[in-house]
Amino acid sequence: MIEKRLSQNQIIPTDKWNSLVDSVSGNRENQWKDSNPAARVKYVLFVIGKVIGLLFLLYIFVCSLDVMSSAFRLVGGKITGKAFTEGAILSNPIGGLMLGLLATVIVQSSSTSTSIVVSMVSSSILPVQRAIPIIMGANIGTSVTNTIVALTQSNRRDEFRRAFAGATVHDMFNWVTVLILLPLEIISGLLFHLTGAITRSISLERKASTNPQFLNVLTKPLTHRIIQLDEKVIQNIALGTVESNVSLIKHYCSYNNVTTENSTSILVPKIYCEFLFSKMSWPDWAIGLCLLFLSIIALCTCLVLLVKLLQSMLKGTISTVIHKTVNANFPGVFHHLTPYLAIGIGCIFTILVQSSSIFTSTLTPLVGLGVISIERMYPFTLGSNIGTTITGIMAALTATTALELRNALQIALCHTFFNIFGILIWFPVPFMRNVPIALAKRLGETTATYRWFAIVYIIGSFFLIPLIIFAISLAGGPAFVGVFAPLSFIALFIIIINFLQIHVPNVLPNLLQTWSWLPRPFRTLAWYDEHIFRSQKQVTVYNENEEKELSTITNRIVENNHSHANKAFNNNDDLEKIPEIYT
User: Fold this and answer.
1) Are 208 and 148 in contact (CB under 8 A)?
2) What is the pLDDT of residues 323-382, one digit of tens each?
3) Alpha-carbon distance 459 to 449, whole Å?
4) Is 446:164 a contact under the CB 8 Å cutoff?
5) What pLDDT does 202 receive?
6) CA pair distance 99, 86, nearest whole angstrom
7) Which residues, in sequence order, are bridge partners of residue 254?
8) What does the buried/exposed string (b/e) look like for 237-251 if buried means 16 or more CB atoms within 10 Å of the residue's CB?
């Protein structure tokens, strides 16, 4: 409301997508010049303390993501591994897509689900063609983490709008890419034939390979004091080499290779692992739930403190400089190359941290604060999608024979080319580039108006709808077509009518030029907001004293605007008094 009133008087031209939070901080340069040496030293030490605090919070944030991933694996990892052995599921491309999505959401790691698929393909348990939809689903599921992270900024409407849009631009890209490439793959086998030709054209020799350790070197000293998992158990359950009741918790950290009298080598446990939950006799799911609760508290606390600390640091000239630097383009004719550099940066950083979730989740609060624009977040996300495929390639290189290496490398390359083709479709052409961005901004607008919709979106998009589609796909092809063919037709009809209503409403009959003839629950979220969640009253109702204060502040800014030639931003005291309910 305050933004609307101020814009009507042409005082403060706001941009809800690119404006910096608390970007006006006064004349700090003059304050620095006028301060004494002791005050300057105090200020410098204060800034250093903030930087150290920022790095500490970022470290705890990354560690909490790692622990949360372990917690999800303890809760649902065995079910995930067992699901990968069901042939009826894997024979259906839609079922495979939903399996990949749900598995990645459950274990909170696309690297884990992708590595399972690569290992199954390498062992010839899963054909490459059936594995491709699972890889596509894993690509979608990995975006749930930064979408959840965006919820921590829901207390400020404008921040939440930007943060949620910045997080879901990842979702939108993955979904629209799957909508094009999955049918194309089912019809033509594009990825299968392309990667098959590549692997057949090169000479493959098995070489020992391990994933490079970068960020894990820093986080392991803390996370391994809390929980340690045997990473191969889920994979072995999927391969059928161990029983599904084996614990995921790692009990022994070192083994001795002992030769028996029959000249048989066996591994004998040597050193017992020491960590917080090592001596507990709880089942895996109970420890997982406990860790999940603790990690979510740590994650939310870190993010709230991180955002507040960033807000206090990114003010005035600093925020403006960072905003302009991050979102700047190359000069002259080279400005079109800037987004491609951002893709490269996103790819490199994701390879370094070995997780696209960590990289995008770290950027999400900065998008909420307005430091990074959604248009710049988009190429960072695309680069992150490419970088995360390196894990699958590394897993493929551990195959023991040339045939296993060829199969494993082929499915890993399918993952890479899926993201490359997605970028080629949705990035080079400006019109196509705007589709995922516009969809994400629409979600950001909706969640800023109805904050409860963010929870509905996460539960629906990553749990409820995939589970329903997954269950129907198990019933067989006829049942699936019978249910989703009518629903797809209705959805396509609504999309076309909405497009025509916006751009050429005159070509439609009077009845279809608006949806006003439909009952309110079928055409607007406002009905649910008023009758179920009842949050709208808390936003729109304000008392008489606040209205008077708002009127006084607005009139003062108007006078300041007329007398100082549109320098209304100089008076920070008035702006800071505006009640948050209006922003």
Assistant:
1) no
2) 666 777 777 777 788 889 999 999 988 887 777 888 888 888 888 888 888 999 999 999
3) 18
4) no
5) 77
6) 11
7) 271
8) bbbeebeeeeebbbe
Write the CB contacts of 127 (distance below 8 Å, at least 6 apart in sequence).
Answer: 121
d(CA 379, CA 397): 28
SS3 assignment, position 519: coil
Q: Are the beta carbons of 170 and 381 closer than 8 angstroms?
A: yes
| Number of neighbours of residue 538 by Cβ within 10 angstroms | 10
Q: Exposure of 58 by Cβ count < 10 A (0-12 exposed, 13-18 middle, 19+ buried)?
A: middle
* CA dist., res. 562 & res. 295, Å (int): 53
The Cα-based distances of 23 to 26, 305, 350 in angstroms read 9, 19, 29
DSSP letters spanning 403-437: HHHHHHHHHHHHHHHHHHHHHHHHSSSHHHHHHHH
Length of the chain as a residue count? 583
Q: What token pair was written down for 44?
A: 């410098």
The two tokens of residue 160 are 């939440």
**553, 578 in Cβ contact below 8 A?**
yes
Residue (of 425, 438, 473, 487) closest to 181 by Cα position: 425
Question: What is the Cα–Cα distance from 31 to 441, expressed in whole angstroms?
Answer: 39
| pLDDT score of 436 | 94
> What are the tokens at 492?
């396509």
Cα(458)–Cα(171) distance, rounded to whole angstroms? 11
Distance of alpha carbon 121 from alpha carbon 128, whole angstroms: 6
Q: Which residues pair with 229 in a beta bridge?
A: 249
Q: Is 230 exposed, middle or buried (0-12, 13-18, 19+ CB in 10 A)?
A: middle
**CA Rg value for the chain:** 27
Amino acid at 561: N
Which amino acid belongs to residue 564? H
Mean pLDDT value across residues 5-13: 37
Question: Hey, what are 541's tokens?
Answer: 């109702």
Q: Residue 253: what are its φ and ψ, rounded to 5°? A: -100, -10
pTM: 0.71
Return d(Cα 399, Cα 405) in angstroms, integer. 5
Cα separation, 68 vs 53, in Å, equals 22
Q: What number of other Cβ atoms are within 10 A of residue 285's Cβ? A: 15
pLDDT classification of 104: cutoffs 50, 70, 90: confident
Segment 446-473 mean pLDDT: 89
Q: Smallest Cα–Cα separation from 354: which of 398, 317, 319, 391?
A: 391
**Residue 258, strand partner residues:** 266
Residue 468 burial (CB count, 10 A) = 13
pLDDT higher at 552 or 452: 452
Spatial separation of the C-alpha atoms in residues 210 and 223, rounded to whole Å: 20
CB 320 within 8 A of CB 172: no
In sequence order, which residues have a C-beta less than 8 Å from that of residue 145 and are 6 or more positions away?
Answer: 65, 108, 357, 360, 361
The domain limits of the chain are: 35-474
Q: What is residue 18's DSSP assignment? A: T
Single-letter amino acid code for the residue at 572: N
- DSSP 8-state class, residue 364: H
